[in-house]
């Protein structure tokens, strides 16, 4: 599903190339649950953003479902975001001026799903994530764990094949973190491919594969 | 759509400072533009209500003397009686003669101030004005008939059909033969009474240029061919009639629909529209709208910067750039819709003020018509696109990655317009202020300019019957008995009224040496009363009243004829010798706005139209009554009408005063709007930098340092703006000033003032804001989220 070949990412700082990712080679198959670990500043988020088409590699070849992602058109990118890739973030990044319901609904609107169908999808998600009584609240009225639940609901509402989670538990207490990880595990079992970044060794073990990223270099943990 | 609305309203509430600033600015902008539209559509709707208005034209005359062209909306009687019948293109032709307002006696009641027209019986063929009573076919056929307007009929007869009733105008007894609907205010002539041309003795036989001439042309007339043919015939007629004048003639025809705004003629049946002033009003209105729009652009960008996270997230979850642009444009549309609604409310308050200001009866209800709706719609859409497009373009480009990396503080800052917008706004403020001050000083200069005569407490009574001159001596002695009356002098013309035109040459010179000259016909004593400055010679003596062999010249006339104290002083105006007994300094009888023409004063006529009275105090009610009573003794039907000459002269500056008020209003509003924008902008920039500011202060930087750097940046922008505005302002204002024969020099002091004043105002307000923030406890700002 994901195929990275000799990916380099660098920034020109004062005419000097400072590498964030160095010849990264990585293949991820459909249905996998991959955990990426590594020290702060190692380039984990950068890697995730490249995979999620939010950032572009400086060099190298990225293939998603055998399609080359270099120089892809804006329209194509939007299409991937609508139909194939979901994101969750450490800081949740919900839209503050929208209620829980509206936050989950927005990707469905962009996807062009009709109102009635949206209603059933969201109702199911709210029930599944235990958010039924929170649907008219704004993010600022929720706890961190609840916000992350909404973040996940928003990410999976459009039925993506790939879920990218950048330190989803980073801001949460352990028990809330466990709840989130259980949820991810469940989603993976339902067929969604997941790549998560985490600092927590226990949470990393939820994945069926752990990758260490140190100074831009990938080391597979067996 | 409703979802969108709900969300957008939440965004608006969150950024309420920006939204309120924008709404105030835009609603003022919209209000002035709606006013402009109301005004322009009023001005351009003149005479459209007449049936066949596109086929009605008017004949005009050009009187050419040397370099001097006089354009007159009138022509000879023969143009109607002799020329018009020769042209099959003319379906109907009519001449109109406007009488000053006259007194109407109906039964025992007197009605003053009615507008009176004399017209041929074909009047209603050309102008198909609907009748309330009677019929247009023979309304003006009988010389003893009269047609009145519905409003007058209502006032006098109520709802009764007045056909056949008798009214007396002056001494003429007439029978009402028709009542027409009143003409709308958007007509270039108006009347309460129309009399048949035959009703006025001799009117039809007046040989001079007297008549307003209108033709209804046949459909499909070849306009240009007809104009050429008719004008050349009319020209011949004029040359023929005025062959003994040292003048040539031309003739031109203008469409009815162009008369109000574009007639070339120097005067008309109603005050002409002023295209220049309309353009000025339009420019000011658009500047205000532009200032408001520009504020919006700036503040929308700022608002967007605070929303980078939201916009970035939308992209992550599948928003395309175009859908983000749409969303941002939608917000701009909604913002401006609110502003439009507010502006309509605002209008209900300012329209009455504006109406009295431009002296037009504009109605707010005009907005609620189809064309009003479409105008508002186009204002709305155009300004929304103008204010929303650029922010939408910039903001939709912001990438999600910016958000995720948390470096939104300087997102796209290089692409932002802010500095250039501040410069642009400020340049306009400087320009407006400079114009305002220049217009103001020019006006003051004109008003203060010595006029060459003394108008202090001089009042002129007028509106008598024609025979009052028979009583001049007793009126004079009776008036002089009033203790407040210092001096009395009679005259046909008076200061501020137009002179008559004559021809003059040195006696014995050849005919083509003739020059045109203005004439005031006065009684001896007139010069003394107005305290003319005598250069040499003397004023008229009382015994010279009625004599036509003595005149007094003004300096320009003496120069023109080459007459001085020691030269030959005999001139010729009517083929007999006249002696120049004195020369007075040029006196500005039309105010300092127009150049003084060569002029001559004579005392050859006994008839007068003015009693000039110099008082030794203000005109008290008591004195006024005494004066009126004395006049009434000699003219029992006298309806008092009087005016201070100073007011008449000041009236000549009405145009300048209006320009000043328009520019003044525009500058103040524009300055307020841009200042408001600048303040909102500063507040937001500060909010963003507050944390930084606080930390720097904790680390020991003095708040002064930080303020100085911020103010320096602002100051630099203001200097650029001034550099931009200066040449434009100088050029425009010297062009304007050159339109006046007497004008001030462009003042660099004023220019400096127009720059320093707004700079100070800006620095003070922004500085005050900065100081307040900077002096807060720094800890507060560190914890500020
Ligand atoms: N625009 C940029 N210019 C220069 N360096 C950058 C830029 N963006 C990110 N970096 C650097 O890239 C490195 C990797 O960042 P990131 O992927 O966020 O690390 P991680 O998520 O592993 O903590 C960091 O050292 C960061 O300083
Ligand atoms: Mg990271």
Please provide a written account of the structure.
The complex is a heterodimer of chains A (222) and B (785). Chain A has 222 residues and is an alpha/beta fold. Chain A has helices at residues 44-51, 74-83, 100-111, 115-128, 144-157, 174-189, 201-204, and strands at 2-13, 16-28, 33-37, 59-64, 67-68, 85-89, 162-166, 193-197, 209-214, 217-221. In chain A, strands 6-7-8-3-9-10 form a six-stranded mixed β-sheet, with helices on both faces. Chain A has a four-stranded antiparallel β-sheet with strand order 2-1-4-5, covered by helices on one side. In chain A, helix 3 (100-111) packs across helix 4 (115-128), helix 3 runs parallel beside helix 5 and helix 5 (144-157) runs parallel beside helix 6. The radius of gyration of chain A is 18 Å and the shape is globular. Chain B is built from 22 helices and 22 strands. Chain B has a six-stranded mixed barrel with strand order 3-4-9-6-8-7. In chain B, strands 14-15-20-17-19-18 form a six-stranded mixed β-barrel. A four-stranded antiparallel β-sheet of chain B has the order 13-21-12-22. In chain B, a hairpin with a 2-residue loop joins strand 1 and strand 2. Residues 408-415 of chain B have low confidence and may be disordered. Chains A and B meet through helix 2, strand 6 and helix 3 of A and helix 1, helix 9 and helix 12 of B. Bound molecules: adenosine-5'-diphosphate (ADP) and magnesium ion. Magnesium ion binds next to helix 1 of chain A.
């Amino acid at each position: 599903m994901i195929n990275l070949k000799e990916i380099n990412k660098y920034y020109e700082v004062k005419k000097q190339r400072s590498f964030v990712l160095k010849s990264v080679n990585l293949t991820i198959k459909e249905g996998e649950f991959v955990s990426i670990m590594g020290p702060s500043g190692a380039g984990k988020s950068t890697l995730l953003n490249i995979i999620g088409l939010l950032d572009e590699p400086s060099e190298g070849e990225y293939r998603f479902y055998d399609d080359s992602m270099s120089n892809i058109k804006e329209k194509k990118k939007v299409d991937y975001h609508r139909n194939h890739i979901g994101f969750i973030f450490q800081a949740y990044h919900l839209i503050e001026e929208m209620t829980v319901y509206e936050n989950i609904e927005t990707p469905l609107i962009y996807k062009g799903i009709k109102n009635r169908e949206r209603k059933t999808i969201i109702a199911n998600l709210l029930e599944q994530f235990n958010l039924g009584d929170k649907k008219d609240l704004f993010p600022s009225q929720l706890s961190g764990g609840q916000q992350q639940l909404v973040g996940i609901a928003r990410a999976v509402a459009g039925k993506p094949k790939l879920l990218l989670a950048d330190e989803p538990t980073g801001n949460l207490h352990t028990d809330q973190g466990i709840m989130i990880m259980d949820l991810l595990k469940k989603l993976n079992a339902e067929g969604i491919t997941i790549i998560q970044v985490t600092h927590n060794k226990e949470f990393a073990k939820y994945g069926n594969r752990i990758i260490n990223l140190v100074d831009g270099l990938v080391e597979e943990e067996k | 759509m409703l979802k969108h609305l709900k969300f957008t309203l939440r965004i608006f509430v969150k950024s309420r400072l920006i939204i309120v600033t924008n709404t105030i600015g835009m609603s003022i902008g919209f209000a002035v533009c709606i006013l402009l539209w109301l005004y322009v559509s009023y001005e351009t709707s003149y005479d459209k209500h007449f049936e066949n208005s596109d086929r009605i034209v008017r004949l005009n005359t050009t009187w050419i003397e040397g370099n001097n062209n006089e354009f007159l909306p009138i022509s000879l009687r023969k143009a109607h009686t002799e020329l018009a019948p020769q042209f099959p293109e003319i379906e109907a032709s009519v001449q109109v003669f406007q009488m000053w307002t006259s007194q109407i006696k109906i039964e025992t009641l007197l009605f003053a101030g009615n507008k009176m027209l004399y017209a041929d019986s074909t009047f209603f063929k050309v102008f198909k004005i609907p009748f309330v009573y009677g019929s247009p076919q023979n309304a003006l056929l009988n010389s003893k008939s009269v047609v009145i307007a519905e409003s007058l009929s209502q006032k006098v007869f109520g709802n009764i059909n007045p056909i056949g009733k008798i009214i007396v105008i002056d001494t003429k007894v007439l029978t009402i033969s028709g009542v027409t609907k009143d003409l709308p205010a958007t007509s270039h002539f108006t009347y309460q009474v129309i009399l048949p041309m035959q009703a006025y003795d001799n009117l039809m036989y007046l040989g001079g240029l007297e008549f307003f001439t209108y033709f209804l042309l046949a459909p499909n007339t070849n306009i240009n061919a007809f104009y050429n043919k008719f004008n050349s015939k009319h020209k011949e007629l004029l040359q023929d009639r005025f062959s003994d004048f040292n003048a040539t003639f031309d003739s031109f025809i203008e469409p009815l629909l162009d008369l109000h705004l574009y007639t070339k003629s120097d005067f008309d049946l109603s005050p002409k529209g002023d295209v220049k002033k309309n353009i000025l009003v339009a420019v000011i209105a658009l500047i205000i709208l532009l200032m408001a729009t520009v504020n919006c652009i700036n503040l929308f960008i700022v608002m967007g910067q605070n929303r980078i996270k939201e916009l970035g997230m939308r992209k992550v979850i599948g928003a395309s750039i175009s859908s983000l642009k749409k969303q941002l444009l939608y917000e701009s549309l909604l913002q401006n819709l609110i502003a439009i609604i507010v502006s309509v409310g605002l209008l209900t308050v300012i329209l009455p003020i504006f109406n009295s200001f431009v002296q037009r009866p504009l109605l707010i209800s005009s907005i609620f018509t189809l064309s009003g709706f479409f105008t508002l719609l186009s204002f709305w859409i155009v300004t929304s696109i103008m204010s929303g497009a650029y922010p939408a373009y910039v903001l939709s480009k912001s990438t999600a990655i910016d958000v995720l990396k948390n470096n939104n503080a300087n997102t796209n800052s290089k692409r932002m317009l802010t500095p250039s917008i501040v410069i642009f706004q400020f340049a306009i403020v400087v320009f407006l202020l400079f114009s305002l001050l220049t217009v103001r000083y020019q006006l003051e200069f004109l008003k203060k300019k010595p006029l060459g005569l003394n108008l202090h407490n001089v009042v002129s009574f007028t509106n008598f019957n024609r025979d009052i001159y028979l009583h001049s001596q007793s009126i004079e002695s009776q008036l002089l008995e009033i203790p407040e009356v210092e001096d009395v002098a009679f005259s046909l013309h008076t200061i501020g009224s137009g002179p008559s035109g004559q021809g003059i040459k040195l006696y014995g010179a050849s005919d083509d040496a003739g020059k045109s000259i203005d004439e005031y016909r006065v009684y001896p004593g007139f010069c003394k009363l107005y305290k003319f400055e005598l250069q040499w010679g003397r004023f008229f003596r009382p015994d010279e009243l009625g004599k036509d062999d003595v005149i007094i010249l003004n300096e320009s006339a003496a120069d023109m004829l080459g007459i001085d104290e020691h030269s030959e002083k005999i001139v010729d105006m009517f083929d007999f010798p006249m002696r120049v007994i004195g020369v007075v300094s040029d006196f500005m009888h039309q105010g300092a706005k127009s150049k003084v023409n060569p002029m001559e004063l004579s005392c050859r006529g006994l008839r007068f139209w003015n009693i000039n009275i110099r008082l030794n105090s203000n005109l008290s009610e008591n004195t006024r009554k005494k004066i009126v009573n004395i006049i009434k003794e000699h003219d029992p039907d006298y309806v008092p009408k009087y005016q201070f000459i100073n007011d008449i002269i000041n009236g000549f500056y009405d145009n300048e005063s209006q320009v000043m008020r328009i520019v003044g209003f525009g500058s103040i509003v524009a300055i307020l709007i841009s200042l408001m924008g600048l303040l909102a902008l500063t507040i937001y920039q500060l909010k963003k930098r507050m944390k930084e500011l606080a930390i720097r202060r904790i680390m020991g930087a003095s708040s002064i340092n930080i303020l100085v750097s911020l103010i320096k940046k602002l100051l630099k922008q203001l200097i650029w703006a001034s550099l931009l505005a200066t040449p434009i302002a100088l050029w425009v204002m010297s062009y304007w000033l050159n339109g006046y024969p007497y004008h001030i020099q462009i003042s660099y002091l004023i220019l400096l003032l127009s720059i320093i004043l707004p700079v100070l105002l800006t620095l003070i307000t922004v500085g005050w804001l900065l100081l307040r923030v900077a002096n807060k406890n720094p800890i507060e700002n560190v914890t500020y989220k």
